Fold this sequence. Notes:
Layout: E1 2-7, H1 18-35, E2 39-42, H2 57-67, E3 72-78, H3 85-98, E4 103-107, H4 113-119, H5 126-142, E5 146-149, E6 154-158, E7 171-175, H6 180-189, E8 192-195, H7 202-218, E9 228-236, H8 240-261, H9 279-284, H10 288-293, E10 298-300, H11 302-316, E11 320-324, H12 332-352
Parallel strand pairs: 1-2, 1-11, 2-3, 3-4, 4-7, 7-8, 8-9, 9-10, 9-11
Antiparallel strand pairs: 5-6
Helix pairs in contact: 1-2, 1-12, 2-3, 3-5, 6-7, 11-12
InterPro entries: Bact_Lucif_Oxidored, Luciferase-like_dom, Luciferase-like_sf
Keywords: Monooxygenase, Oxidoreductase
Pfam family, one: Bac_luciferase
Amino acid sequence: MEFGINFFPTVGPDDKSAAEYFGQSLRLVELAEELGFDHVKTVEHYFFKYGGYSPDPVTFLAAAAARTHRIKLVTGAVIPAFSHPVKLAGKLAMLDNISRGRLQVGFGRAFLPDEFDAFGIDMDESRPRFEEGLRACQKLWSERDVVWKGRFYEFGPVTLLPRPFQQPHPKILVAAAKTASSCEQAGRDGHGLMMVPSISKREVVQEMLGLYRKAYADAGHEPGGDEIHMSYNCYLSEDADEARAKGKRYSERTNAVMRDAVAAWGERRSEGYAGYENIVKNIARADFDRSLAENKVLVGSPEEVTERLRTIREWYGDVTISLQVISGNPTFEESVRTMRLFAEQVIPQLRGDGAAGAS
């Protein structure tokens, strides 16, 4: 298993200024490098406290690249539907060079109606726009004199500059929420996978992983390239009771800001997002204690979290774990404590099991 930090902000100006948020987060990036974590990651969202302080992952990760020299930089994820592929591919190629090949590019479809409305994009077009944008970026990175004639974009012949540092291009990861076919397609294409296990039953996640791994193997891709990232809210304290109390408070805050962001689903329907009309009800029914019992959050003492991860590894295999240590707006000091306890007391135990920990 590998471990990293996922910067998913859930704050707005009445909580802390953007300058304060970025300053603290970049200090945590430096700490992640110091403590031996494998990656740092951030999201793309707009307008709401739910992710809104991160409208451009590339900008944040460029700043992270300047403060580190080893740790991988992961977009989790960029949204092709909201950017022209020539612009997106160029920005990401710049970041790959600035970081000297430490970039992994996660692509996602997005799911918030207000974001699509602001960009003037029909939600029913999200999947074909995602697929076209990803493939256009991949072609721009790996070929010269590219001519593209797609459903949404037409350009060329063009040769992208700069060329990516990694050849033929950075590792690609695909975000998948509930759609099994997305997992299968990612496997067939030889991409990695990004998932959020907290939104699905364990058996559903296992089924999706099985489909992904089978499609990857059946397509004949190189063994070991089927990289899987899973994000978990994380809060650690040496006092288990404190960890549960604080972890519950911050998880409930995260749910509250997510509820505001998804409110439009109460009146919206889309063929491309089957069942998302229930998302508001599902958040209202969220139960922290049940999530904790089902290992959908990594909250507790270092010993408890170690056991949760051992169970997760039994369920899903040696996946890459992304820890959301700032979601819910804990104090900076609490985020530091969580990272230190995890690096110093959890990872060594998992290494002792024979699992691969942080670099």
